[in-house]
Design brief:
single chain; about 350 residues; alpha/beta; TIM Barrel; eight-stranded parallel beta barrel; two-stranded antiparallel ribbon; about 15% strand
Length: about 350
């Protein structure tokens, strides 16, 4: 087993039906992977049905929810569901909370003026409720009075991670969360910078260094060119779906592009090509794969995973993109002697 590698988990996104998630979860556990992570993007499949089904179908592998937001789910509901899911999983759940995607939150009729305050309030409320307390809390966005769970949650110390991107959000995660979830489309340079901010804030708050989990699209294969072509498609879809439609990018988006090594003008031009419907294989060159994915031969993938650990990510949640994701899971496990680290 390669000691230079981070922990390896499997990201099971909303594009995968719950039944297929169960089969991949059983495979991942059988082949020794550490974790399953269930993201939740606006108006797609909710994370909890697949997570609950996989919790029942497995015994050892941890179940990560990453991330829910307090607009879709009030913090009291997050606590209700997280505690019940942890009962079902017999203490294997890790909960991720983030502020969500602003445009989608506004589509639901909510204001999005104080997203960091919303996350701070949510984590405070959820953590106190999972300790079994009757909670009265007045926050800037969410407040509750005398609210407690109607059952005894199994773990008062259930880990709560925070999905964060901008500098202020990263500092907040260091100050109050048990870990950080770094999203897709974040290059190694961004990871290293985020880890430094996170750890600095944790140290200032007198807290231990939080865990760092990073989502990365992955495609291992014997045919290097084919693997990299397939992962380009996944990168292109994420860029087109989640990058701002106008040229007014938030500072953390600017940081991501700067750390990728791709000039901003070229990144913007590629984004425009994707949104015109041009194939990702034409719009994106090798730099996008190198910056935003793990793809190529199995040996190349493991070396790239090691680079994420050197940048500070202690765990990778790999999204096995393209057809036959089970083959990618098996290929990495085979290279590691039958198990993910």
């Amino acid at each position: 087993m390669n000691a230079d590698l981070p922990l390896l988990g499997v990201r099971l996104g909303g594009a995968t039906p719950p039944g297929a998630c169960v089969e991949l979860a059983k495979l991942a556990e059988r082949r020794g992977f550490t974790s399953l992570w269930f993201p939740e993007n606006p108006f797609g499949r909710g994370a909890l049905p697949a997570a609950a089904a996989c919790a029942v179908a497995t015994k050892r592998i941890t179940i990560g929810i990453g991330a829910v937001n307090p607009y879709n789910r009030h913090p009291t509901l997050i606590a209700m569901e997280a505690g019940a899911l942890d009962e079902l999983a017999e203490g294997r759940v890790r909960l991720g909370v983030g502020s969500g995607i602003g445009a989608a939150v506004r589509q639901m009729g909510y204001g999005y003026e104080r997203p960091l305050s919303a996350v701070r309030d949510a984590i405070h409320i959820v953590r106190a409720m999972l300790r079994g307390e009757s909670v009265t809390y007045r926050g800037r966005v969410f407040s509750i009075a005398g609210v407690g769970l109607g059952y005894r949650p199994p773990r008062p110390d259930l880990p709560i991670l925070m999905a964060a991107m901008g500098d202020r959000a990263l500092a907040l995660a260091g100050a109050i969360a048990d870990g950080l979830i770094v999203s897709n489309l974040c290059p190694l340079g961004y990871t290293g910078r985020a880890v430094a901010i996170l750890r600095g804030a944790a140290a200032e708050a007198g807290r231990p260094p939080p865990d760092i989990v990073q989502y990365v699209p992955c495609r291992p294969g014997h045919d290097r060119a084919a693997a990299r072509r397939i992962v380009k498609q996944a990168i292109g879809e994420m860029m087109a779906a989640f990058w701002p439609a106008d040229d007014a990018w938030p500072p953390w988006r600017e940081t991501i592009v700067a750390e990728s090594g791709i000039p901003r003008a070229e990144f913007a031009a590629a984004l425009a090509q994707l949104r015109r419907g041009e194939p990702a294989a034409q719009a994106l060159d090798a730099r996008y794969v190198d910056a935003f994915a793990i793809a190529g031969t199995v040996e190349e993938c493991l070396e790239r995973a090691s680079a994420y650990r050197r940048a500070g990510a202690g765990e990778l949640a790999l999204g096995f993109v393209g057809p036959e994701p089970h083959a990618g899971i098996a290929a990495l496990a085979d290279a590691l002697g039958g198990a993910g680290r």
